[in-house]
Specification:
The complex is a heterodimer of chains A (about 475) and B (about 170). Chain A is of the alpha/beta class and about 475 residues long. Chain A folds into three domains: about 80 residues, Elongation Factor Tu (Ef-tu), domain 3 (Beta Barrel); about 270 residues, Rossmann fold (3-Layer(aba) Sandwich), CATH 3.40.50; about 120 residues, Lysin (Up-down Bundle). Chain A is built from 16 helices and 19 strands. Chain B is an alpha+beta fold. Chain B folds into two domains: about 80 residues, no CATH class; about 90 residues. Helix content of chain B is about 60%, strand content about 15%. Chain B is built from seven helices and four strands; from the N terminus they run αααααβαβββα. A four-stranded mixed sheet of chain B has the order 2-1-3-4.
Chain lengths: ~475, ~170
Amino acid sequence: MVEIQFEKLLEQFGEVGFVETLSHSIAKIKGLPEVRMGEMVMFESGQVGQVMALDSEMVEVLVLSKSAVKVGARVVRVGRTMTVSVGEQLLAHTLDALGRPIWGEPIDASKFEFRPIEMVPSGIVYRKKISKQMSTGVVLVDLMIPLGMGQRELVIGDRKTGKSNLLLQAAVYQARLGRICVYAAIAKKKSEIKRIEAFLQEKGVWGNSVVVATSAQDSAGEIFLCPYTAMSIAEYFRDKGRDVLVIFDDMTSHAQFYRELSLISGRFPGRDSYPGDIFHIHSRLLERGGNFLVDGKEASITCLPIAETVQGDITGYIQTNLMSMTDGHIFFDGELFFKGRRPAINPFVSVTRVGHQTQTSLAREAGRVLLDLLSGYERTQSFLKFGAELGESSRQILTMGDRVLAFFDQPTSKIVPYSMQLVLLAMLVSGMWNGKNLNKLLEAAEKDNTIMEAVDGMVESSDSMNKLIDQVRKSSEKLLPHLS
Amino acid sequence: MISENTQEILNGIILKSEAVDWLRELDVLDQSVYKTDATNFVQTLEKEVNSKLSLAIMNELKIKGDGIEARAEALREIRDGVNSLPEIKLEVAVDLPTAMIKRISKWLKENVAPGIVLDITENEEIMAGVRITYLGRYVDLSAEKNWTEVWKQVTSELVTKGETSYGGNSV
């Protein structure tokens, strides 16, 4: 089959190349006089590659396969750029960087359409202002660092501080609301990929999810393409009118593999040995996210890239690049993690540039209230170090701060609906609740629909915290029994 | 730049295997350039390398002189000259006789490029004809390419004839 296809292409184009040198994933080919940049090529043995560079003598090809290509092997043009097959059938599958299922049921390819992996981002005419909030189900994020549908928010922090867990919670919550989640696992261990898949299946949202995964054992070319494939799949669903959440886990690994490819291909190293186009590699990906007009309606691609830091240093090259090309960042603080805070997000260092414009006046007031409380708490905490005696008001601040932190303490398995967050905050601020036993209320809300109906009603009929607190006082009998 | 006489000698290379031999011999000479004087170098030329290459080098040394740098430069330029000879790949079904190879080479040197070298490989599967690759272009003039169509035509003719001859019974 492969031979027939190879011979057909050979006859169709009348051009052939020969592999002169091969170094890891980069093959240098002599021949193919009319090949174009970014074009797909096929080797005699069936592997495919993508043209990365052209010069007068040689064509540099990124080999997209782990199996060895032989020196002297023939290469033929395929005549198109790298494409990935997309369709509704991709949902509930784990794919490789070329869009093929890695394991599980084979996919019926008859209804596929093909989308290029590399696309020029849409212009301003096709974009709309971000106006809808994207809830993650994580209290600390939704109340203090709100996100919008179509926003690109960087999630940054040291390794093993809970970044992926936060994003999985966000993915589950969004998938339950009917949105599509595309998770790009870049150079992850196979056990981690399986864990992500199992988590999504366990939460019952696998039917709205696609995982595009490459392991560290895959070729550098496939690892490089992984996030672009994920984005192309997301764009397919966006063009069908669906809102999509795309998670890139993680971009620092992606940059490292691209650095490896560039150094092997002889490109001049720049800062930290990264090539000069490392910014463009990521920016052209993230610019494809946003809030768009599709057939007169809005459809968004929200991007949540992850960046890893070392010892909390956010001034690294890749980290600052990503921060400059996103609409804010959520910072996972290692110190907070070791103090036991989950999620270990530092709300004072985290930023959201467009999230606040999506909030109602109630939500904005709630965020301000929380910020005031936490700021006061941190300031008062600092006086404790001097062993000073605290007055009544300081002790009240500390008590309230402890309650807020208990409120923010949220295990990975728990997702709090947004309206519930606002109501609970109102109860906390008004002294009706001490911030504990949240799980009991969530379990009760899952069983009894009237609880959520009441909560939604309270939030919809309030445009300020005071009104919400009044509403909550009137209806507290529904909620308080579950919180005691 | 190599002299015209040397270029003419290089243009006399017919097969790629010859060019590869020249490069190997140049490698041997490279190792002796800085270790021998002019007289010993000439003796090495006479004993270790083929006569054409030896003649080419001597031509260059006449122009450049016989100092160490001149020798190194001559070898380098001849190596570049050999590497820049255009190459044409021919995939044929049978082992070609020498006379035919020379004829093909002569025709190509006159009509395509003067220094063109042939890289001939045998592949029985093509049955007859040739597959040509030159400067990245590929042309398939083999019998194997049309074999399926030919075979279909032949079998359908046989079947038709059989039906006519045997009163409608298929062969």
